Amino acid sequence: MFFPKSNAFIILLAFSVLTVFNVNAQETPATNHKSKPNSFDSYRLDWLVRKDSLYVATMLVNDAISFSKKNNLITTEAQAYNALGTVLNKMSNYKKAETYYSKAFHIFDSLQDNKGKDVALTGLVEAYTGSKNYSKFDSLYPIAKSLSKSLNSETYFINLNNLIKRYYYSNSNDSLLATTTRAVKILQRQDFSSLNSSKGYREENLKPKLVQSFKYFNAIAKIKVDNKDPKNYKDILAINDEDFKAILNSDISSYRRLATLNYYKYLYYTVAQKDLDSATKYLLKSDSYKYEAIIEIENESTRNGELVHKIINAEQKLNLAQETQRKDAKNSKTFLITTIVFSILFIITLGTFYFYFKAKKNIEKMNKALKASNSKFVAIDKDRLEFFSILSHELRTPIYGISGLATLIDQENDKEKKQSYLDSLISSSNYLSILIDNILQANRLKFDKKSLRLKPGKMSKIVQHVMSTVAVAAKNKGLELKVHIDESPEEEQILIDKVAFSQILINLAYNAIRYTKKGHIAINVFEKARTEDTITLKFEIKDTGIGIKEEHRPIVFSAFENKAFLNKNSSGSGLGLHIVKTLLESHNSEIDFTSAPNKGTCFFFEITFDLITVASENKKVLTTVTPSKDMRILVVDDNKINLLITKKNIEKIEGYTCETVSNGKEAISIVKRMDFDLILMDINMPDMDGYEVTKHIRMFNTSIPILALTALNSNEIAHKTEAAGINHIITKPYIFEDFKTVITTYSQTNSIYRKTIDSEAI
After folding, report:
1. What is the pTM assigned to this prediction?
2. Which segments of 287-446 are extended strands (E)?
């Protein structure tokens, strides 16, 4: 309900006073605490925790602690400490939770209350599992297990579930498989009605939840031990999403489990069945649950932040109230009781009037808010599903084209037709590469501007590369490609991030091709202004396509929204123009366009670049140097196709031969036995990644050039490669001539030749 802020404290005070009297009605002070019955309302506390009413739960526990201390109710005090640990565990504040569980355990231990000790130890085990403090977990778990087993308590299975999570989080896959296999058998045989409940009530559906949890982790363990055997996917495929979801809470952990469940189903159809459609379906479902988990994380962070603030205020008020009580204890008891009674009557009266006059209005507000919220979530879900549907189509189209064209090339004997198929294959491959890069780039650029890696370059070469990338796509649609670049001195170059800027032009060019049926595509580069150190260039990308209405201008550059003005069957993911706009912000530039429906569109922007002059003598050295001996290159990559492609590219360079190995240990061994002029190192490899392999090689060979050959974004790995001792990064996919330049440079010892590489590096 919507309470006015001025009444919040009155209602909170009423709740606190009523809670104190509720506890007082159940317990009366006694000299001997051992004679007091167990009166802490654990059922109500657990219900509040399950409903995420953590603030009310905290107030209930604080009142119980205060009351038990005042009246020397030691058992209740221990129960309240244990309950506070449960609330803090729910908030993921495991360090604080450990403190209160420990307090509760020491009190129960002093009272020789084994049942209380069992509950406290179970809480500690759960806190160590959540914080991944495995050293403390391993020392405490045997003690907790032994006690719960001797008491025939259900906590034995709760502790067992935490042991399974501990093996899962630490990737102890063999232990996970053995433990879950045994746990499922034990649990299925166990009659839970014969167990001694650790609380004042039996938890509903505990056994089905644990059975499902044990089976879930057992199914995952089988796959982790051997993910190549299709039989190991049988149990994960048998788990139904809806049945699994029905026994889970709607929290982060549940959505993560559902995401993981669908990911392994995706893995099955990818690795074992090679069924792309089914694999895509489960991958999308996995991503959908990850999306829900992200939303829940954000909500929980906000909720916990507000809750911590409220708890701090509540503790301050509690301390102030205790101080006031100590001072007022000197006054008459009769006066204190009379004051409390009148306060309660006043609060009840005030609350009655408040709810009488405000209930109807609050209900109306709640209904409006719920309707608005429901409409918003329906719209979000619709947009998300539509985007994933478009993305699925966009991914399948080039993948189908690549697969089909590869078959046609294999079957075709006519050289001209085979070359035509090959050109189309390259076009589909280029489009797929751009699409995937756009998806990844959209995620990276969501919060921050891109950090540019500026190096010398010629604008004419960059535009030529862009035109060659999109040429086949334009040819397939019968479109003419036109280019105009204002002339500049041959020795003059600009400082530019070639990868980022190429991505801008490629996205704009593909966008123009996509929405143009006939006519031409033009890229124009004009010199707008020049100083001694800088040059300002204006870029235009024109087409004769469908055009854009003026009313759609506000959404053209918005991610996922910019397809609203097109028909539903149009291609494209809706990410390209958004990424162009974001990348141009990193260049301190803005993009705009002019357009006429059915006549065409012209996108344009301006960028100011720093100038640099490259000596012509160095250029001559760059093109004429040839190797003085046969050059031997070592390529390290765990992917056989990548090894084949890299080997063939190196052997196309005159005077170069190539050796290949598929893992880090072989690389270290062969470098110790044989001499190489250069090493090309993959970054992502099992067992030992490229960083670790390089560090080992640098222990006995500090001079050999080691280049990273990776599909990772070079900005993300630059610092790690430098720290490992890697000399340079080549980002896949690359242009062969640039690749050749880098290889020949780093494999030579000529210092002048090596010095010129910085202007042409990939």
Report:
1. 0.43
2. none
